[in-house]
Amino acid sequence: MRNLSSVPRSISDEIVQFCGNINPLSKPIYVDSLPLDGNSVGNCFNNVEDTLNSSESSILGWIIWQTSSYLLQAEFHNVIKSGSGKLICVTPYSKSYDKILFLEDSAMKYENKRVPTIYKAMDDSTETATFIHALEALSEVEVYMSDALVIEHLSDPQNIVKRNALQGTMRDIENAIGAFEAMVLKDTDRNSKCICGSGKKFKKCCGAN
Predict the structure, then answer these.
(1) Which of 193, 207, 209, 204 is nearest to 6 (CA)?
(2) Are residues 55 and 75 in the same domain?
(3) Mean pLDDT of 121-139
């Protein structure tokens, strides 16, 4: 699956409404992204824990991503609050960003388990709606397959029906993801900057294959 999401270029009314539905007591703000050498890509909770000093604290909330004009998503996230009160993101991602868009959420707790990402369609296309359902289903499959007992159970030759059903689910997920990506990419000018936020031209990035 291609990573077509990026940090929103501005805080639109739609983003404000999306964030308000998640936590009405906070507003989204841009936070400096200053990943440290040795920190793991996307592993914000361990990165913050390993980086904190005595004058700093960790702040839980959501990083807000946008995929062109089609999709918003909020991913559970952790940043550092410095002694002066400034928020800093120390986690690297597959693409480099000067800032991230962050929504603080003090009501959230991290219990060392995955918190589902929140999605919101920005259009009424079937492709976007199906893509969201596919991502939610993929998350459920990943949690399901993270259990060693489940893997052992599925490896039993007698459970071929369950294995086939799981494979069918994965094919449906892949088809939904492919249809959404094709819709997002089809009208992108090959010489414009790629919508994924990499800074490269589309033809040398997501449009290269």
Answers:
(1) 193
(2) yes
(3) 94
